[in-house]
Amino acid sequence: MTELGTFKNVLLSNDDGIATLTINRPKSLNALNSATLEDIGKALDVVKSHADDVKILVITGSGEKSFVAGADISQMQSMNSIEAANLSKLAHNSFEKIENLPQFTIAAINGYTLGGGLELASSCDIRVATNKAKFGQPEVTLGIIPGFGGTQRLTRLVGRGKAKEMIAMGTMIDAEEAFRIGLIEEIVEPENLVPKVKEIAKQIMKNGLIAVGMAKYVIDRGADLPLDVAIDFETQLWAETFATKDQKEGMSAFLEKRAANFQNK
Ligand code: CAA
User: Fold this and answer.
1) Which family, according to UniProt (predicted)?
2) Does the Cβ of 71 fall within 6 Å of ligand 1?
3) ipTM of the complex, rounded to two decimals
4) Fewest CB within 10 angstroms: 1, 57, 125, 235, which?
């Protein structure tokens, strides 16, 4: 395990190609203030610059109670509209970095995942949660709307009706319900969260990671395009994979009845 950088409110380490970014403000249930959002952005820059030795990024929260319980209400309470817009842009900047990383990202959800926390988790490629986790967009209970992407990313994950229901009610749903509506991909017992996330990460790492990165990119970009344009985009990236050494290795390995040894080139 190696530390990849030192930040005030975020921990970042790399363990054999699987990096973990931990939001580390357990006393306030890992609430996102501007300093933490800045740290997340800086940590993501480090992850991107280590693309040779970081293959997968896991994002999680410190402590057993909370992934992230939202934006920091004590910071927001006295903010004016300009300050609110700046905080929102800071979050968008960091969350867009997650989506644009070449590495695959997994949210390891260990507890309350509310407001900005659900918006952070929704920016990851997949979500694995414990059966104790609770999810919600409670912004309207505070007299505001989701401002870190929740009206858009939650809607794209669960559909307009469910997103409107969750946002308008402002109540929490449990992990079973989150799984049922497609908000999370896996539910595990708390002690199995880290092993399950590692199992998924290791399975992905056996594959051609240029191909994994391209698939992630075209799925995300294509989702907002007309189908025919998105299909053309897929053809373009599919053709590009044939210019990689990984494609030669993957297909040769199949024909030679051996495991592929991808170099990510
Ligand atoms: N901001 C700041 N502090 C927070 C916080 C938040 N979002 N969530 C929890 N905390 C703090 C609490 O104030 C408390 O601090 P003190 O010990 O100093 O009093 C500490 O964390 C522990 O929290 P609780 O005592 O409330 O713990 P609990 O077990 O009774 O309740 C909870 C847990 C249900 C998650 C509750 O803390 C809660 O409802 N938190 C707020 C959730 C919320 O509304 N999130 C949305 C924020 S708005 C947003 O995110 C906007 C956006 O779109 C970006």
Assistant:
1) Belongs to the enoyl-CoA hydratase/isomerase family.
2) yes
3) 0.98
4) 1
